[in-house]
Amino acid sequence: EAGVTQFPSHSVIEKGQTVTLRCDPISGHDNLYWYRRVMGKEIKFLLHFVKESKQDESGMPNNRFLAERTGGTYSTLKVQPAELEDSGVYFCASSPDRQGSAFFGQGTRLTVV
Amino acid sequence: AQSVSQHNHHVILSEAASLELGCNYSYGGTVNLFWYVQYPGQHLQLLLKYFSGDPLVKGIKGFEAEFIKSKFSFNLRKPSVQWSDTAEYFCAVIGPYNTDKLIFGTGTRLQVFP
């Protein structure tokens, strides 16, 4: 069974550009989460989808971040325009239930220069 | 605000040494507790979890953790580490306010030398 896959694995962009991160959850997992780790700090929650609906987006930093989950399958996280402080590793996770035992992807390392 | 503290940021051990990584969380009530591990170049994976019942939880690869409610702690232990345990370890908690987003600690980087 395929795990959670994220694309790209690395992205280097200039300040002001747009970047779109993609996450493919494990098939059949209704719950999809985005997290972010800024260098040296803790992994922080960004948002949670249940199927195609945003259940909780309390962790989204500001309106430069837009997450979608088309048809309840894959999800994208777009940053527009990117700022230096957006650099970090963005993790996606999926779960069949809402009890925290999520399966994580390898993450996308985003560097904004 | 809910928070998780991991006291050790970087731990260096020789093979066969015993390991204990500290984890404390900041609030009472019913919580679900987790330890995740990230091996070099790999994804985060679940080591073990505590929801209820026996406070001594056994996970994969010989790891265990003990939930001590009175101390708000969930320390990770392994009696004898191996070089392959070199990784970053994250303590995380869910709850108690009917939410299922994980609150992570800052992580502990473990290096094990042969």
Strand-pairing-aware structural class of chain B: mainly beta
Tally of DSSP β-strands of chain B? 12
Could you tell me which chain pair has the largest interface and how many residues each side has? A-B, 26 and 23 residues
Helix residue percentage of chain B: under 10%
Distance between the termini of chain B: 41 Å
Shape verdict of chain B: globular
- Ranges of chain A where pLDDT stays below 50 over 5 or more residues in a row are none
Mean pLDDT of chain A: 94
How many helical elements of chain A? Answer: 0
Oligomer: heterodimer
Helices and strands in order, then pairings?
The complex is a heterodimer of chains A (113) and B (114).
Chain A: E1 5-7, E2 10-13, E3 19-24, E4 31-37, E5 43-50, E6 53-56, E7 65-69, E8 75-79, E9 88-95, E10 103-104, E11 108-112
Parallel strand pairs in A: 2-11
Antiparallel strand pairs in A: 1-3, 3-8, 4-5, 4-9, 5-6, 7-8, 9-10, 9-11
Chain B: E1 4-5, E2 10-14, E3 19-21, E4 24-25, E5 32-38, E6 44-50, E7 56-58, E8 64-68, E9 73-78, E10 87-94, E11 103-104, E12 108-113
